[in-house]
Amino acid sequence: MTPTQTKRRLGLLSLVVSAGLVAVKFYAYHLTHSQAVLTDALESIINVFTSGFALYSLYLAGLPKDENHPYGHGKVEYLSIGFEGALIVIAGLFIFYSATLSLIHPHAVAQPDWGVALLSFTALINLAVGLVLTRAGKRLQSVALVGDGQHLYLDALSSLGSSAALVLVAATGIVQFDGAAALLLGIFILVNGYRMLRHSVSGLMDEADSAIVSQVIAELQARRRPSWIDVHNLRVQRYGANLHIDCHMQMPYYFSLEQIHTELHDIEELIRTHFAVDVEMFVHADPCTFKACSLCRMPDCPVRQHPFQHAVEWNLGNAVRNERHTLKPPATVADKP
Q1: Which CATH number fits domain 209-337: 2.40.10.340, 3.30.70.1350, 3.40.1350.10, 3.20.20.480?
Q2: Which tens digits make up the pLDDT trace of 114-132?
Q3: Longest dimension (CA), the chain
């Protein structure tokens, strides 16, 4: 089974489970008339819509590149979690309003034991499916699957919170615990909806992923050759599961075009084999100048003007800057034009 097929089947699993659990929760509300249970059920309706949209986004993300989408369709996964986050925020606002009214005008809760049993059952199912989706999403580098799995985790926590409210009402007879729990769940849902929206915007706006950038830099540093004098302006963009990476690599100016081509090919293959997803990498070769002699380790360099002092250690702080790294050379020797 291909990764694309695996993603789509997991997306379908999430949709089917979400639809089934919504029915269970509304049945629990029918039995209990609990505001907390209604809050949980309303939030779960969002699961159905978002799981359906996530499944569609996984289908789109798996389509090949075309003339209109030269980098593929992977960005739609960020749109998916943004859509999910927006619906969660809307649901959270409605739940907050409804819970406030329930606190002002509380009403009795019926059959809390059945409510606790049914909500605990849905929580276990959501935790199990959420764990499967999150692990698979991280393995397959799918933000849509990870987002869907995390939403199911949140839904499970909501169900557990609603169950706790029913237990408190049954134990104390204080019906206000029901409305208070719904209010807290509304706030919890709003916060997490905002976080999903924030993650969606950061992905659509190509916010730097420092973890991936650090992996690229570490791999280049670990396999560094003397001819790879310096790297700068390193950038990583994510398109769904796929990555687009580009950087500037400073190399000896006297290398032939064939030598440069071989070095660049080796760098690109080195990074591609490091990641388990499709990587499109472009390396721009910059010719060295005499200012770079003090940090260049090329043995028997025929044009060296300054003695080697030490190599620049590439890290997240210097490799992403759009400037060449230099050590201060002796002022008596002019730089190569």
Answers
A1: 3.30.70.1350
A2: 888 888 898 899 899 989 9
A3: 91
